[in-house]
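Justification of resources, computational component.

The compute hours requested in this renewal are based largely on the per-chain cost of generating structure records like the one below. Each record pairs the submitted sequence with a full structure-token output. That output is archived, and it is also reused by downstream analysis tasks.
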Amino acid sequence: MKINTIKTLVFGAAVLFSASGCTNDFEQYNQEKLGGPENFYADFIAIVNPMKSIQRGLQADYQLYPNLSADMYSGMFSTATQFNGGVNNLTYSMMDGWNNRIIARQQDIFNYSIIIDNAAKGNYAGVDFTGTFAVKKILKVITAARVSDNHGPLVYSKYEKPNPNGVTDFDSQQDAYNYFIADLTSAITDLQKIAATPTTQNVEDKTSLKSADLVYGGNMTQWAKLANSLKLRLAMRMSYADPAKSKQYAEEALASSAGLITDNADNALISVGQSELSFIIYSWGDCLIGAPLMAYMNGYNDPRLSAYAIPAKDLDVQGKYIGVRQGIDLLNGKSTYGAFSQPQAKSAAGDYFSATDGKMKLFTAAEAWFLKAEAALRGYAGAGDIKANYTTGVQQSFGEWGKSAEVGSYLANTTATEAPYVDPKNAANNIEAGNPQLSTITIAWNDGDTNERKLERIITQKWLSLYPNGPEAWAEQRRTGYPILFKVRKNDSGGLISTDAMIRRIPFTIDTKISLYNYQQASQMLNGPDTGGTKLWWDKK
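The structure output for this chain reads:
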């Protein structure tokens, strides 16, 4: 969606509101006709509907982004489909028609935000939507952070502030991250303020959010906790690029009265209805489980395996859990690899990939504990004990997937490591024991290990717990180098992306280059060519 369509969308919101039967004198009308404030406060359709669209929109166009990029690069997913003749993102030949959805999705969501702002001013003048707007701000940060973690610079603080010539400027990724932190901090303050008010106050705000909220059903205390957890996530992402601010922001989050998502009861899952992965995987057959994910889980004899994947139906590997290696010659495509293991996501809270009651995972308790473990490793105040945080992170992940009874023996395992990968269709794809593309990290905590090996253990288990959140898993893998992943065998980048260094970002697409975004400015902010081989600002290790 182009920026010049905003006016049309805003008009559409006004029409939508009119269609709901409300009038300009809606407050007086509803109180007179419907019998009191409990009925008057039960509508707010012009706010509620676009708020729902923002949340559901985070999974829109899911196949193009993130499934055929970040999901695959994370090592969690793969495909047997020979898109573009087998020359595409997965072999490092960047597909503009896929990757343009990253910024387009941000535009859609940010434009819905503008619709909400205009509805509040035009249709609900005088109503205080502080809490609802704080949630909207958090959703915008989630959206923008994903854009930045793919491209680097992005249009964020100036999205609604074009220059006199109509061109809109970018923020550098460094500046954007500081804006994200500031906006999350502001949202936390606002949410705590409204949550603390008596039930008879801020009724409009609380009622509109309750109707619009697909995550927590209007619970502002939980949203504040999510915002603070996201603040810790972004603070740790800055750890190599800006250690001082990383420490400052992380310690603020660790000390905040908002708390963190430390129990699965507070997990942030968007109820999306039909998960787009339900048809990408099970109807189209375009998404399979990743070979690295299965190699780790098979090697660890991980009890979560049956929740993450379906045994292969291929006669050569029937009944086994085996993924497809990314960036290989797929030979005859689906007829060769299509019956390898499919992904699933059968959690204790339900099927994330359900065709009727799907969930999109934003943040879970396990991630908070692993963030705390890394923060403790780095000596950040308030982070607690490294081993205790690590152990609790694994325990919370097992709880998320209904495997708590088996976590004790898993955490006690001192010998298991990632399993070799054997491709029964093409031995050239094998990764045998001793290959440096296989990790030697074990599960049980070892205080005697070096800090680097401790970091690998933390991030490897964090990566396993992040499933199926491919974008976050890929970002952390680039930042830390962990978990160790398999390299592509077929590199079609023409030398723009190193096979050994692996892909570091997704280039801007033609749509951005010819838009009213200041692409020349963005390209200068990259400190390198606009290719998949240039590192992002936070990618400093």
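Confidence is low (pLDDT under 50) at residues 1-42. The two ends are 36 Å apart (CA to CA).
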